[in-house]
Amino acid sequence: MAAPKRKTSKPAKQPAGARILVVEARFYSEISDALLAGAAKVLDEAKASWDSITVPGALEVAPAIAIAIDAAVREKKPYEGAVALGCVIQGETFHFDIVAMQSARALSDLSVSLRLPIGNGILTVDNESQAWARARLTEGDKGGDAARAALALVEIKRQRGKR
Q1: How many domains does the chain have?
Q2: Which of 87, 103, 122, 136 has its CA 20 to 30 A from that of 129?
Q3: Residues tagged active-site
Q4: Full domain range(s) for residue 51
Q5: pTM here?
Q6: If you average pLDDT over residues 97-125, what whole number do you get?
């Protein structure tokens, strides 16, 4: 039985002038470069202003977002959203499960608790070929997808904030 065709909706309105934070885990640096290229392309096309910081691995992404968000508020230059990028590849131990689940949980918790739009572009895959298929702009472009998700949530927040 074939998988159902993925439903797509019309693209979300791009929020003009959004200020976005991109945090990328560099454990798999070449894959991270591809994810960042996809996110940067989407953010630039949306005319968003964005800053990028790097961290060693996926577990450090959410704390880095929280730290940078707090600093930006103190500096009166708040971010409207964030994009989390990185890659976790299945190994021979339970460590993969911990990193994959806890990095996603931390991003979700942070997003909900701060009402902060976050696009999760942290890949969780079985092997490097799966990671590349998802990271490349010409294939999965998950970095671009994460940026589009963050921008869509920024637009929802802007629209709902008017009420």
Answers
A1: 1
A2: 103
A3: 95
A4: 19-161
A5: 0.90
A6: 97
